[in-house]
Structure formats: structure tokens, C-alpha cells
Amino acid sequence: MKGITKVYPDGVIALRDVDFEVYEGEIHALLGENGAGKTTLMRILYGEIRPTGGEVWVWGERVEFRSPRDALAKGISMVYQNFTLIPNFTVLDNIYLAVSSTMRVSREEVVGRLQMLMGELNFKIPLEATVEELPVGLQQKVEILKALVMGARILILDEPTSVLSPLESRALFELLRSLKAKGVTIILITHKLREVKSVADRVTVLRRGRVVGVFNVGEVSERDLARLMVGSDVVVENRGVEGVRGGVALSVEDLRVRDDRGLLRVKGVTFNVRYGEIVGIAGVQGSGQKELIEAIVGLRPVERGRVLIDGLDVTGYGVGERRRMGLAYIPDSRGEGLALTMSLTENSVIGLLERFLGRLNSVRWGLAEGYAGGVVRDFNVVHRSLWDPVLYLSGGNQQRLMVGREISANPRIIVVHEPTQGLDIASSNLVRSKLLELKRRGSAVLLASSDVDEVLGLSDRILVMFDGRIVGEGAPGDFDEEKLGLLMGGFVEAR
Amino acid sequence: MRLGSLENLRSQLLEVTLALVVGFVGGAIALTAFGHNALENIQVMISYGFRDLGYLLLKSAPIVLAALAFLVPLKAGLFNIGGEGQLYAGAITALLLSKVGFYLAIPAGALAGLLVGVAIGLLRVVRGVNEVVSSIMFNLTLYYLSMFAIQRYLLDPVYTHQSIRVDRVLSLPEVVAVMLLFPLAVYLLLYNTELGYRIRVAGSSSRVARYAGVNLNIVTIQSMAMGGFLAGLGGAIQVYGVTSVVDTTLSSLYGLGFLGIGVALIARGNPLAVIPAAILVSGLLIGSHWMELRGRVAPELADVVIGVVILALSAPYAYRVLTSRMGWGVGGG
């Protein structure tokens, strides 16, 4: 892939002039933080999205894929984090369904090929088992088998271990090695350093849409990779901003939380946040911070442990009750924090409506409009009318509206998840300085971000999460990028 | 809440005009295919349908309420197909209580509809039953239950093909007042109260609703209760304002609830636009009877003509609702 550039319709530049080369029969890791552009690059290779500029060459031939179907015809297949299997179909039905959509084969032929493949690769999956009965690790193998039967010679795996247990991950790597021995080319999208070192031959590191290094894995250390992946950009600094330190605002005791699939994602976490303090949670995506945050704000049930606000046990409280106690929340998804079909004004008062009610619970829209006006002014939300649906705003403007709404309400405690995603540097710094302003006025801030510079720059105290646990804690000065990168990548011994 | 911008209004008007043209052309094709003079018949339908203003308004009122009965739950993201059954429940309950007096019978009818709505809501919240499925079941059950009630308790001793008469027939101004007040009330409720806001947030996305601390279960029950109330009231008004009796086959009630769905869609989910939409549709209905009479058009064919027009008018909005709400196509979020 040469000179690939991708600009999304909302103006976000995902990739800038990226060159990416994979040799036949190697395991190539594509390493980078969230939002570095790894998945975007691979979706271009897979024909799912089209590049804004640049060329794609496969097997020495210039190609322009219009859809994954074209990519499949060239032997390229992609396995996503979220599997594309029908849960209540059998393994065979799922594979046959996919195979028969591209070529004419009988079920017997498919069974034959599957058995041959499983024999060569030295593992077994009961073909008549229903997919939902299988553990996640086996479901993933079904996906890989599906791709192979469909003739894949280049296999792209998107964060394959994010849903797997350590044991399952090891089994996956075994499988990848035997695939490589068979001559299959594998591209592994990952942000885990250990995976790169243990299974890949070569690695390309992406940061903010640019290639920052290509290495043979044997010739580069984890430390160098960590430093490259995390990088350093100038961000708003916390230093010198002193808040009025107060008592404990929010605390979490031995919290255990499961995700939607029932996997334990938060495995006994304890910490607290004081008034006038910003506590940052650093961690790669899938380390449990999403589930932790949802449990704190009341969106996700807690399996064990407690959440306390101002010393009061709120574990059994709903979202609304916690909001009334002064807890605000900026989610990591605009699809969660904004009602896209409703207007800017209406979106400005989501969760705050109680402040804008008059007689008979009527909404005082004049007042709400005034509040919305303040938000769009303070946070530079470019808009035409405050009564237009939020749908018409660009991604960055939506993000600023959502963040601005929560910050402008002057919450006593605020939980913030990826507040600057999709924002350019100027807007990001605006949001960051507003968070510092909140802290200065004595609010408690819990900040989770996969942007390491953001966490390092803003936090008074940093917690590093990996695999559902806090694996490191300290002041920003205690960490450099290298140490943080290693901790986030799961090298716990660096503690 | 402000009304949409002028541009928005213009494009909506264009859409409606085009839909009307498409609908009537479709109807004309159907008429021609069966050997009728299309132009003449459509002319009869339109000119006669809108001639008697009083009758037109009278007929529109229950349809307005049936449309609102679909519209309120729709704003919460629910498809209340049960307006039909809720309307029967309201009509029959009101008729049963006609000996007590209309001032009690009509509210009781609305309450009966409300109970059916709550039942559908509860089934969804407690047992996870899809509201469309349970609505359809309630419609059928209530259809036969209503026929039974008329045969058994309400039969007129003289005219044995229909029920007894209501104690008092509502006057035209009374019916028109209901027809104007309720859309206005629903509008104010949806766009100017906390409850309405919560309903609309819930309808926008269940994820956003959870984030905003809106209890989806409570909103489901509330909006279905309101829907049922409005449909039940529609049934009571149909009996007390329009027909005075209900025949043993329920032909004077049958289909009103479903018609309400079409009208709500034609009105683009706007409670105030329900009024003109209902007048338009009931005008077409009245006109189609004249078409049957004058042009000897078969009743089924007349229904086809109206059906095509309603379909053309409601399809664009129905498509938008389905794509955004069910996550079909784009806009799922």
C-alpha cells in the first residue's frame, strides 16, 4: 500500500501518506494506539472503505477494490473483533452460508475441506455444534476456518486477543504459526507489545495516521516500540493549576464488573477521587475501563464491591439518582450521549432537564435555549440553528456539544471517557483547559483516555489499567512514556 | 420546541403533493383496469367527499384520536398496532354505560382503552413480549369479545342487527372541540413537558435514554397508556358522536384504528398535522361511498383506490421511521 490517505467525511484525517508493505508468508504486526488508523488502513486493504488517495498493490498488481467481495477474490480476508457468525446456527451452517455465497460448492465438499484443514492445522471443532455453545476462542477459530475455506491467503486479524483469555490467546498464536508454516500471510492488528514480540516477524508502528517505524521484530526492543507507539505531542499541562483539595468525592471498593458477554472485565478495582483532583486512567482499549466507568455512573450492574459518592453507598442507585447527586458523565460514544434526531437545544439539557422545568413540569425552552447558546459559544460548536437536529453537525461539533453540555453544568464530580476523540489539537486543548478549570474550582474529575499524553498532561494521579486490574499508580512524574507504554502493554513486572 | 424551518416545510409540502399525484394516478390505473372511467370517478370522490362539512368533521374526529393513539407511542419508539382493539374496548364500554349517562360513559370508554394499552405495555416490560405481536392478539380478542357483548347485553329489541342507542348524541361543536383540543394537548405534552421530553428521548435511542437516566419501562407503560386512552376515547366518540349504535358485525368500528396508523404517518408524526390529515382521509372515505353509488364501482375497488392514496402519502415517512428506528439501512446510529 503506497501513500494511503484517508479523510473521513466529517473532516477527520485518519491516515496521512501511509506506506505499508507485507511480505508473503510472514506474520506482520500493525501496532498503534486507539485511533492511530490501524483498522482504517486494513479496512481499505479489505475493500470496505475506499482511500481518499494512494494505491493498493496485491501480489504485484495494482488493485482498486470496490467491496470486500473483490478483496476476497484476491485471497484477502478479515476477521473482526466482533464475529460475524450467526449464534444459533451450527459451525458448518455458518461456514457453508459464507462459502456458498461466493462459490458453488456442496456441503460435502465443504466438510471435506474443513476436515483436511483441521487435520493440517492440528485442531478440532465439532462441526455440528451450535456456535453460541462454543467458547469465544473456538468461535474465533471458526471465523479463521471460514476465511481459509473461502480461499484466504492473506488473513487480517483485528485485535484478535481482545476477547480471549490468556490461554485462548496462546492457542491462537499456535494456530497462527502453523498457518504461517502453510504459507498464509497474516496481518495482526494490535496494541499489545507482548503479542508483537511473541508471534510477529515484522512490525509497522502507526501513530496518529502516520507510519513512525517498520522493524524486524528481532531487531527492536519493547521499550523502543512503546516509545514510538505512544509518542509525545504537546498538550495542555496540569502543572501549576492548583485546585482546592477537598475530601473524597468518589470511591470504588473492590469492584468486579462483567461485560455484555458475561466476561469478567473489572477484576477487583479500588481507588478514590478527591475534590479538586484529576485522576487519570490509562489503558489500552478493552482493559476494563469502559465497564468500570459504566459501573461508576450506574449504567452497568456490579457483581461485587461498592461505589460511593461523598461516602454514601450508591451501588444500587440508577443513573438519574447519581446525576442528581452531582455526578456528570461524558461517554466515549456520541451515539450514547446525544439523541441525534433531536435538536441542539434539546440535546443540551439531556440529563439536566430538571433545571429547566417550570409549572406543571413544563419545559422552559427559552431558558434551555439560553443554556444551549452558552455551550455552543464556549465550545465553538459550529451550527446553523439551535433547533436543527444534532444529526446535521459534523463529528467534531457533536463531540464539543456533548462535552460542553456536561462541563457547562458545573458538575461537582465528572467522569470523562475519551473526551477529545475526533477533535483536532486546538479543540482538544480547549476541552482539556475546561477540565482543568473545573478542577481548579474544586470539582472531582475521573478521566479515562487512550491518549497517553492527555492522561499524563492533565492528571494529578494516574492509574494504569491492564486486564481488569490496576497495575500501576502514581503521580505523572513517576511515569515516563516508556514506562507507561510498557505497563499498558501488560508488562506488569515494570511495577 | 419550534416548528421546522421554512425549507423543511417546503420540502414536506412538495413530498405530500407528489405523493397525492402518485396516489391518484395509481388509483386511476386501478379504476381503468377494471373498466371504469377513472377521471369521472375520482372527480365524484373528491367533489362529494368534501361537500358536507359537518359530516366530514364528525367522521374525522374518531380518526384524529386513533391517529394520536398511534403517534404518542411512536414517539417513544413503540408501534401501537393495538389502536383498533383499544378503540373497540372504548366504544363498547361507553355503550355499556350509556344508561348511567354520557358524561361518565365517554371517560369510561377512554379508561377501558387505557387499560388495554397498559396491558400491552406491561407484557412488553415484564415478559418481553413485542408490542406489535401482543397488539394484534388483543385486536382479535377484543373484536370477538365486543361482538359477543353486543349480542348478549346490548342488542336492540326492535332492530336485532344492532345495539341499543346511546343516551345522548354529541353535537357537532362538541365533537369538533374534542378533535381540536386533543391534538393540541398531545402537542403540548410531547414538546413542552418533562414527560414528553422523556418519551422523545426514549424514542430517539434506548442507549441515549439509559444514559439520560430515563426509565424505559416506565416510559413504555406511560406512552402505551396514553395511546390506549386516546384510542378508547376515539371509540367512545365514534359511538356517541357519529353512529349512535354499533351493528352486530362491528362494521361501524372496524378499521378505524388501522386508519389512524395511516393518518399518523401521513401527518409525519406531527400531532397538529393529524387534524388536516384525518379530514383528508375521511373526505376520501366519504367520497368513495359516493363513487360506489354513482359509478357502480365495487366497494373493494373503492377501497383499493383509497388504499393506494394513503399508501403513497404515508410511505415516505413510514420508510424514514423504519430505517431510523429499526436500524434498517442508514441512520441506525
Describe the structure.
The complex is a heterodimer of chains A (495) and B (333). Chain A has 495 residues and is α/β, with parallel strands linked by helices. Chain A has two domains: 2-230, Rossmann fold, CATH 3.40.50; 248-494, Rossmann fold, CATH 3.40.50.300. Chain A has helices at 38-45, 68-73, 91-100, 107-121, 136-149, 166-181, 193-199, 222-230, 289-297, 319-324, 334-337, 344-348, 365-378, 395-408, 425-440, 452-458, 481-488, and strands at 2-7, 13-18, 27-31, 53-58, 61-63, 76-79, 154-158, 185-190, 202-207, 210-216, 248-258, 264-274, 277-282, 304-309, 312-313, 327-330, 413-417, 444-449, 461-466, 469-474. In chain A, the strands form four sheets. A six-stranded mixed β-sheet of chain A has the order 6-7-8-3-9-10, with helices on both faces. Chain A is globular and about 70 Å long. Chain B is mainly alpha-helical. Chain B has a domain at 54-285. Chain B is built from 13 helices and no strands. Chain B has helices at residues 6-33, 38-49, 53-75, 83-96, 102-127, 131-154, 172-192, 194-204, 206-211, 216-243, 256-266, 274-295, 299-325. In chain B, helix 3 crosses helix 12 (274-295) and helix 4 crosses helix 11 (256-266). Mean pLDDT of chain B is 90; it is low at 327-333. Chains A and B meet through helix 10 and helix 11 of A and helix 8 and helix 9 of B.
Largest sheet of chain A: 6 strands, mixed
**Beta-strand content of chain B:** under 5%
Structural class of chain B: mainly alpha
Oligomer: heterodimer
* Rg of chain A, nearest Å: 24 Å
Task: Give average pLDDT of chain B, whole number.
Answer: 90
Instruction: Identify the CATH class of the largest domain in chain A.
Output: Alpha Beta
The strand count of chain B comes to 0
Class per helix and strand makeup of chain A: alpha/beta
- Using the alpha-carbon principal axes, give the shape of chain A: globular
User: Could you tell me the number of beta strands of chain A?
Assistant: 20
Radius of gyration of chain B: 20 Å
Shape assignment of chain B: globular
Determine the CATH superfamily of the largest domain in chain A: P-loop containing nucleotide triphosphate hydrolases
CATH topology description of the largest domain in chain A: Rossmann fold
Please give the count of helices of chain B.
Answer: 13
Work out the helicity level of chain A.
Answer: 25-40%
Q: With helices defined by DSSP (H or I, 4 residues minimum), what is the helix count of chain A?
A: 17
Low-confidence stretches of chain A: none
At CATH level 2, the architecture of the largest domain in chain A is: 3-Layer(aba) Sandwich
